[in-house]
Known about the structure:
Elements: H1 3-10, H2 16-29, H3 35-41, H4 47-58, H5 65-74, E1 75-78, H6 82-87, H7 91-105, H8 112-120, E2 125-129, E3 134-138, H9 143-155, H10 161-167, H11 173-185, H12 189-202, H13 207-219, H14 222-231, H15 235-244, H16 248-271, H17 278-288, H18 295-310, H19 316-327
Parallel strand pairs: 1-2
Antiparallel strand pairs: 2-3
Helix pairs in contact: 1-2, 2-4, 3-4, 4-7, 5-7, 7-9, 8-9, 9-11, 10-11, 11-12, 11-13, 12-13, 12-14, 14-15, 15-16, 16-17, 18-19
Amino acid sequence: MDEFNQLLAELESEEEEVRSSAAQALGSANDVRAIEPLIKALGDEDDDVRESIAWALGEFGGEAVEPLVQLLDKGIVTRLPKDDLLEMSWYPQDVRSSIVEALANTKDKNAVEPLIKILKDDGPFTVYNRKGNELMVCEDNWEAPASAARRLGYIGDERAIEPLAEVLGSDDRDMRVNAACSLGLMGDARGIQTLVTEFKAAQKNDESHMNRCKYLLDQIPPKDVGSGLEKLELYDDAEEWYNSASMLEKAADMRRKKADMGAAKISQKIVHGDEVTKTEIKDSVLNRSTVGGGGSSKMQELKELKEMFDSDFISEEEMEKMKKEILK
Length: 328
């Protein structure tokens, strides 16, 4: 038996690790003869094995798209008997999701429209055995659309942007955050805003969802997350994010923007004759002293501080305290 046929035999092994290794080897070999048997094996009952098969099929790129779409149109195929299926209500959903994952892994442009179709409404699907006999019909299907929402961003095709944006209004939070991550990967600030909003809301009483949102935000390049936050004028969040990613210069830029905004508000109040409190003036000066400027900047801040003292806005004690803040 040659190596290829040996791997096909191992794909039917009773041991999960053997099946998984065989799938990975077939994907690496990139022999198109493996596409059909790998698709047939996508009904494996083990999650890790299906993940390996989905990865392997992705390695064939566009050549695997049509047969995977045909399988999605048909339903799913399993080697399990019907009695086992009735005791594993989760199984058909997971297999359907693995087919979507395999299709997305191809990163082929021809996979985009089928994935958008799944995203919008996958509907009921039929489960067949390997002989082609119908075993059951699954009426509910929520995992495949969520998987499509999560995976479309990795292909990065603009056709998916508006369909994904529509999902941001879904009542299903898994759909929302998955679509938001895909949009974020494609540089759409709406996705980042949704993830940040979900993350902040979950901090109060939902650690699991908070961690999920943080994980999805981490999938997006830090500079894109920061840029998205800037577009939304969420400068506090942008500064925190840049600091967490060790992008210190960008974090300093955010502090400058916040300081400039504070100074602009004070100037506007003065122009309109509004009352300006000592706290607002002190905050404006101190904010500008923490943006990472050099000596000339500090000299300017000290000069402004002296003018505030001379104008009786602050006491000598307050001036000395603020001076220490600027010089430290």
